[in-house]
Structures are given as structure tokens and as C-alpha cells.
């Protein structure tokens, strides 16, 4: 048995899975009359609300607030429309492998040595993710203190535009049935709801493979109430301090691609606010750059302290993800996340497949491994497990005073032993799926479970040193092969940096509304709940505005 050949197969397929893309027709862009490049912005302007970050939360928030107020939405990236690397399912991963300055994805590497990405495009993470759409659990909604009825209405408001039922192929069906054989019961069919057992979830890809993102929710905006500037990099929130009991946010400074500086201020009015929706890296980073954060850290970067806020940047978490690649003797469909097993022990099992993983791969390891392999080599798929929560947390710090530079972030994967135990149980469940009758025809008999694990453990998944061999416990496998599933959160958490209304503690007229406020990742995949939160808080803020 030539295991070297199988190792080349695995490494090529892995690189292809992360970076495959194919030719696709360009999607027609919506005619948003309110969307401009920041170079056309005036040097001075005034609005009722200024939203920093046109991402998964910022777009539905802006669309909602524009119904009864003037709104400025500032997005550092460009438009997702007309870019097939974003709009087509067959192109998943292409944006993540694009390291150019104009890429909709900005790569960063955590201090843990795990390669990661953050969005840099209108629509945010919904433009570059694997598309799975699923709601938060009832328990999560209750713990967050949200109004259950408004939460449901907010989910439904989005779902009519961006959520679809996927068509299940043979491979995904085998994973579903394997999960049931493995005891992840009951079978819950197709549902957006988060319930124990095995289900088919929603997707933001329609039946034609077109991606529908948070940017599509801007179609619900009032065009006369909204201005969107693209390629607008916000450098600082401005605070009024003189004669104030406490600092009050009243404007922002942003720059366009030429480096020209623009200022936007809030109009007079007690209800007018600045809302930061720049994501789990961008939101705590911008607060710090604006003088709100740990005083000593800010001083070390020569930033004037507006408010000593030691918990800004704390509580950073990223759900660890570990996967096993299973080569298939049969052709398999191209699929992203469709089936999920929600276990009682705290691990979520998901899967993705495709026989064209190699198509157009652009990373150097992918090219190196795939040049001399025929297309049957790439048949197969990944079954992965994601740890819920997680319990382990880290922190974020500034590297520079440039908002376009990545901050330094540490997630401390598996620092808490319970996270590690959940990973082990998740990997054991994947073994049961692979050994199940339902999955039997999609695996080679001679590739035993230890061989499959060893192939994964030797792949270039992260920058961590390798220790694992088949004689070692699964705890070592989990630590050695940890990856991200891009569900990182924290840095501006509720109860620590913001209150239950997402108002920043200690300052006035400033909120943070995005995944940086989460203590745990909602549901099996967070994008639906981040979008929901934008709509939900938009409705709440407008109702308060009208009531007073």
C-alpha cells in the first residue's frame, strides 16, 4: 500500500477544499442608488446614525434604521456584487485564498498559530463563509435577554430574502444517516431551529448556487434615508468631553482610498448615536484606537485615553474545529455545510464534499500537490466537529495605530479541559459515522481509521508543531490539528463592555452591535443570529426614537 500517494491525495484535497473555485457567470448587481465610493464623500457631513461596518449585522441594522432616520453606513471593503468568487457556491474558498489588498477577505494568524480570516466587503462574513443558516437555541435567546417574539420576527424578516432549503445529494445523505446510526438522535428533518439530534439546516445559497448575503438586505432600506460609502476606513470615533458628565460620541473620522480625510458628525438630538458593527476584531480595535480601552495598553501606543475600559478586547473566543478527510471510491456531489448533528455532549458535527476540490486552486501547497494528480484523486469529503461555546477565552491587543492592520489576537484553544473533552467526543462520533453502514460505500476499506487520522495530523493545517501519531490519545490529535471555522467572537461583551441594550458602558451615544458582544457562539453557526441582531436592535432603537 503506497501511503505516500494517499498522503499527497489528502494534502491536495485539503488545499483544494480550502481554495477551490471554478468559472461562473457574474451576478447582476442591485441598483442601490445610495451606494458610493468614499472618494465621493464630502469632507464634512451630518446624520442621525453613523454605523461603522457594513457587515452581517451592519447591513440589516442600516436598512432598518433608514426607515425613520438618516443613516450613514461606512464599509472599509468594496461591493460583493459582480465578483463570482463571492456570489457563486462553486467559488467557495477563492476569496479566502486571495491575499491581495482588494480581497473581500483579510487573512490574520492568531498568536495560537491558527490561520484565520476576517471579512473586508459589504455584507461581511456572509460573503465569504460556507453559507449554513441556522437559528440560535431558545435557551440562548432567553439567556441573552432578548424578546422572543421580536427575535422570531427578525429571523423571518431575513429568511424571505437570504435563506433556502438545500438539495441533499448522496454523500450528505450518507453523513446524515451515519449520524443517526452513531446515535445523534432524533432525525429532525429540515429546520432552521436549533434542537438536539440530526437535521438539515438552511443555506444562503439558492438552488442555482447563487449566494445571498447581508448586503441583499439593503433592498429593504429607505433610499432617501441611507448613504453607504465603500472603501471607507474609519480611523477614530470622536468624543465630546468638555462640559460633559462623561464622554459622548459625536462623530467619526474616515479615510478613502486616496488617503483623504473625511469627518461625519451626529446631528443634534438626544437619540442620535454612533453604532460600531465592525466585527469581533474590528469593534474592539476601533474602540481602542478611539481611546476607549485598557489605559496602559493605549498609552503604550501613544493613544489619548478617553475612558479606561480594561475589558475591551477581553473574552476573545474562537470555536475550535477539527476535521477528518475521507477519500471516496465513488464520485460525490459538491456540497458545503448542509447536515448538522447537535450532540448532548457539546460538539456539532458537520460535513462538506466535492470532486472538484482542485479546480483552480491558487495556493502554492495546493498547486504543488495537485499538479500531477488526476481528478479522481479529489473525490471525497470532510467531516468536521466544532466545539460549542467555547469555554476557553483569550484577548486582543493593538499592534499598530492603523485600523487597516490586524490587531494581535490570542484565542487559547483548548485551554479549558472541557473544550478538549468535547473535541475528543466529536472525533469519536466522526469515527462512528465513517464506520456506519450508511457511509460504507463512500470510503476505501484499506484506509483504516488510524490511517485517516494520521493523514489529517500530518497535513499543513496550522502553524503548530506536530506531535500526533496513532499510538497517542485523541487529545493530542485535537490540539495538533485545530483549525478555525471562522466563528470567533467577543472583545466587547454584554455585561462587560456593553449593557443589555448594547450601549458602551461609561460613555454616551455609542453602541456596539455585532458578534463581538457574544459570550458564546449562537447555534451551530452564528451568521443567522448576527443578521437577526442587526434587524432586532434596529427595530428596538427606532421604537425608542418614535416613543420619545
TrEMBL record:
Binding site for FAD: 121, 234, 486-487, 515, 526-527
Cofactor(s) recorded in Swiss-Prot or TrEMBL: FAD
Keyword Iron-sulfur: no
Top-rank taxon: Eukaryota
Keywords, sorted A to Z: Disulfide bond, FAD, Flavoprotein, Signal
Disulfide bonds: 423-478
One Pfam family this sequence matches: GMC_oxred_N
PANTHER family: OS04G0573100 PROTEIN, OSJNBA0019K04.7 PROTEIN
Entry's family note: Belongs to the GMC oxidoreductase family.
Descriptive protein name: Glucose-methanol-choline oxidoreductase N-terminal domain-containing protein
Lineage of the organism: Eukaryota, Viridiplantae, Streptophyta, Embryophyta, Tracheophyta
